[in-house]
Amino acid sequence: MAPAPEEQLTQEQAFGILHKIKYPLLDPEVLPEPTLDTLRELNFRCMTTFPFETLSLRATESRAVDLRLDAIYDRIVNKERGGWCFSLNKLAFSLLRSLGFRVQYTLGRVCKPMNYGDPIVYLGLTHRMSLVLLEDGSKYVFDIGFATSSFYPLRLQEHFEVEYFGHKRRIQKAFHDEDKAHVLENPPEELWQVQEYMGEGEDGQERWSPAYTFTEQQHYPVDCEIGNFWCCYSPNSPFYQSLWVIKGTADGCYNVLINRTFKVRSCKGTIENIAIKTEQQRQEILKKYFGIELTEEEWRHFDIRIE
């Protein structure tokens, strides 16, 4: 049985994405070169243009995220919506490849605790990201699909740290279940771990919280389909029967709408916190902070209205 043909963006679609994120092209008819500067510019502009959102689950007949590349492009670029890691990072992967980057995608395990200091629990392979190999041999994580993702790519190098608008993210080596004996007596699995800076503790020490872990293993479309299906339909998914819309801003904040709570987060913490009491109030927040107005069709399928 022959494998399905690999999905790729057309050149017109690649330019369509660049125009949508207002990428500063030196020549309007020439795609940018696959350099670190290009990678950083793409990461920042995607994070401040495309929202992380679960409206596909709440306001479509299918209650699912369509992973066909043309469907992702249509939703994000033409319909001005967003997505989550399996769609946003698939679009990003396809764009990077069309620009000439050497890139593969991999899957990671989310392990971000609800509160700092809570026990770390590893979920399934439900987070997709891209790994980029540059000409100098350096490798970077390109991830625009973790809701409060870094505005800039992270180098695969232990202790590598990036700071932007006071926010900090870093890469560390980690081991899964290092304290448990392996049944087959294999050594603990070494992982990369993305961590988020949580500020200083009372003792003056920096506090870092894990976000997700991953390896450099190559994965395949069916792996993404399985993870995407779990995120859509499992009662254990954090997105099950929930509305999430999160987007970075050009001045370094994150606008965060989860169900009936809206927050604006800066590097100093929450600078605005609104308890949403009516559906009209929530729809006004969607329009003001995310540029999203539900269509008649979306409103007809919207299943989480505040009555």
From TrEMBL:
PANTHER family: ARYLAMINE N-ACETYLTRANSFERASE 4-RELATED (PTHR11786:SF0), N-HYDROXYARYLAMINE O-ACETYLTRANSFERASE (PTHR11786). This is Arylamine N-acetyltransferase. It comes from Entomortierella parvispora. One of its GO terms (molecular function) is acetyltransferase activity. Belongs to the arylamine N-acetyltransferase family. InterPro entries: Arylamine_N-AcTrfase (IPR001447), Arylamine_NAT_domain_sf (IPR053710), Papain-like_cys_pep_sf (IPR038765).
